Each structure stands twice: as C-alpha cells, then as structure tokens.
Amino acid sequence: MGTNKSTGWGAERAGRLDNAERRAALPPGETLVRLGLAPGMDFADIGCGVGYFTLPAAGNIGPSGRAYALDVSAEMLDILSDKAAAAGALNIETVLTGAYDMKIKSGAAAFALCCNVLHEIPDKERFVREIARLLTPGGTLAVIEWKMVRRDKGPSLEERIPPGTLESLLAQAGFGGPVQTDINPDLYAVTAKKE
Length: 195
Description:
α2 crosses α3. Helices cover 29% and strands 25% of the residues. By secondary structure, it is an alpha/beta fold. The longest helix has 14 residues, at 74-87. A 7-stranded mixed sheet has the order 3-2-1-4-5-7-6, with helices on both faces. It has helices at 20-25, 28-35, 54-61, 74-87, 124-134, 163-172; strands spanning 43-46, 67-71, 92-96, 109-115, 135-146, 175-182, 187-194. The radius of gyration is 15 Å and the shape is globular.
C-alpha cells in the first residue's frame, strides 16, 4: 500500500506522490467528490502514502467524518501526521497496517479509496476482501488504476489491471454495481458497493 513489492516507498521518494504535475492531472479533492465521497462519511485511504488524498478527504467529509490513513510505511505515516498537524486536521487517524490486515474495526468506513496500489499486491482477492471487511454494508470502494496503455510512467503493461479484470475481482470479493470512470489519459477508476 503506497509501496513497491518488496521494501515500500521510503520518505526519499515522497515527492513523487505529491507534486504540482500530479495535482494537475489528478486533483485529489475533486476526484474524491467525483467518485462519491460526501460530507459526514467515514473514509479509509488504503495505501495513503503522504496523504495526497487523505488531507483533502478530511476537509471534504468535515468534522463529523473520520479519515483513516492506512499504510505499511511508518515513514509515510509520519510525514502525513506532520502535514495533518500543520493543517489542523483533527479528524485523521493514521494506522500502520499489514498488507492483508488493515488494523481497523469491521464496518469502520463508508467509503474506501485504493489508488495505484492494487497492481502491486500479490494476493489481490485477499486484499480486496480485507477492504470489504472494513466497509459498512452498502459502503463504496473506489479503485484507481493505470490504463492499459504504454506510457513512460507507471508500472509495466504486464502489471496493470484491465478494467474487466478489476470488476471481476471486486465481484468475487462481494462488491456489486461497478461503475467505471475515466480519470485522465493515464488512469481510470472503478467504484462498487459492498453487497
């Protein structure tokens, strides 16, 4: 989550996760609203990294919502904690997780986001089932992944997940009603509801 397959993304690479180019191509607050995040929701950012989506989400959901920032990297969570403190975001809770153990209670969130993480996970079905566990019944999972196009950035084509494969994976993990959204020339999203 926010990691490569072996050792995770260290703080020295944090600038790649939040920069002006990424914000222009993938505006975090607008993207979350477009995918269905609403005021008052409890939100889980799976593989939150330095808080690219967590901090805007905390503002979007307001003080009555809670934003869970989940990552396998303590370094990333430390950076996020400092950012949250500087921003006065009191509704963010950072959680150091295992790859298949999100460490928060079942039904904790109504909306979960998994951005550019799933292609890195070896056991994708197990991972998505764990996300389903932490969602409320009827909760939304939004997965943003790389399109199946050859570009200079992102993972190799072999690592990318075709939209149909992603929708099948979500269905196997108990999600229904998938909706595909074009995010930008490089990325697409699928949102689905926990059944």
